[in-house]
């Protein structure tokens, strides 16, 4: 999208955001950023959601710059750990029905993740924007005949209702190409999503001498939700190889200084952990078992659901970020690390290929422990290069992925969409 500001004389809008679960994650970060930026431009912004917990949320949701209303939190998220998609649809439809009944006067509604509500929303409101983080039918498992039967109507509804939006946004060129190859009917109709990259608040990651002077053990950092698709085990395996490689070199005097660093070296695994979700609980245990299997339990620290302040401190003081998902739709955490002036090691696929400049702001690697371990070794053995990468990374994010740039583009799109006839 073009980075063009809309006229200052534009009228102020009433904008609703319909989102399934306002917790902590990349999709939630984008929604909160959208609300903050639109509200800062004088628009009235109101988020409607089926779940919001003030003890597990982004700090901006507590500051009162926009409204948050919850409907339907009593509805189940799953039925005996099954039927998640159906339950998500029912929860969001419940939210949309109450929003339409009690709040009928919005100019624009931004629908996030669950497109099934779009037909209802369009009957009442002027314009509808749908943010498609990734086609849900590709995230779902179609592993057997019963699941295929269950998913068939849901997949059909997803494609049909997505095409009803006045504007479809995606988070990367990678997702845009996936959208075209997945929703072939929509592509044939000429429906082309626009790319609106997620963003970070650069000011949140100011580099201070107090943080940088902390006397602590050096550590690599992994931040992800505790979900198997995030492939966090890759960071543990790569870190184990790094330590094993150093042990084999201890006799080399040229490695003496590095050896000292290696003995103190840690891997910190932080990220979103929701005790309500069985996968989170099971995967955490699997990862802890993996550290024991690799013999590196004493070198790995788990920090599930740490505070925003602690998360920012970790980003400011780590050696670099290890980002392990393959074919990630975009990935907000690499932006946060680069904003904190840290290089990123990530898989050479998906969204990170658009946000990370290889050998300039980090390394793009094949998703194997050997490749990741090699990149980690380069970061550890060349501090000057690592610092230069970090400085380049921050400037890169400031220019292309700041929340200000995101806000300018989103605001211009909203104004343009409302001014379109029909």
From TrEMBL:
Q: Where does it live in the cell? A: Endoplasmic reticulum membrane
Q: Which UniProt keywords apply?
A: Endoplasmic reticulum, Glycosyltransferase, Membrane, Transferase, Transmembrane, Transmembrane helix
Which stretches make up the Glycosyltransferase subfamily 4-like N-terminal domain?
24-203
**Which major enzyme category is it?**
transferase
The Enzyme Commission number assigned here is 2.4.1.132, 2.4.1.257
Cross-referenced InterPro entries, in alphabetical order?
ALG2, Glyco_trans_1, Glyco_trans_4-like_N
Give the way it sits in the membrane. Answer: Single-pass membrane protein
This enzyme catalyses: an alpha-D-Man-(1->3)-beta-D-Man-(1->4)-beta-D-GlcNAc-(1->4)-alpha-D-GlcNAc-diphospho-di-trans,poly-cis-dolichol + GDP-alpha-D-mannose = an alpha-D-Man-(1->3)-[alpha-D-Man-(1->6)]-beta-D-Man-(1->4)-beta-D-GlcNAc-(1->4)-alpha-D-GlcNAc-diphospho-di-trans,poly-cis-dolichol + GDP + H(+); a beta-D-Man-(1->4)-beta-D-GlcNAc-(1->4)-alpha-D-GlcNAc-diphospho-di-trans,poly-cis-dolichol + GDP-alpha-D-mannose = an alpha-D-Man-(1->3)-beta-D-Man-(1->4)-beta-D-GlcNAc-(1->4)-alpha-D-GlcNAc-diphospho-di-trans,poly-cis-dolichol + GDP + H(+)
Single GO MF annotation: GDP-Man:Man(1)GlcNAc(2)-PP-Dol alpha-1,3-mannosyltransferase activity
Segments forming domain Glycosyl transferase family: 214-395
One Pfam annotation, family name? Glyco_transf_4
User: What SUPFAM superfamilies does the database record attribute to this sequence?
Assistant: UDP-Glycosyltransferase/glycogen phosphorylase
Any one annotated GO CC term: endoplasmic reticulum membrane
Could you tell me which pathway this protein works in?
Answer: Protein modification; protein glycosylation
The similarity annotation says: Belongs to the glycosyltransferase group 1 family.
The record's function comment reads:
Mannosylates Man(2)GlcNAc(2)-dolichol diphosphate and Man(1)GlcNAc(2)-dolichol diphosphate to form Man(3)GlcNAc(2)-dolichol diphosphate.
Q: Can you name this protein?
A: Alpha-1,3/1,6-mannosyltransferase ALG2
Organism this protein belongs to: Adiantum capillus-veneris
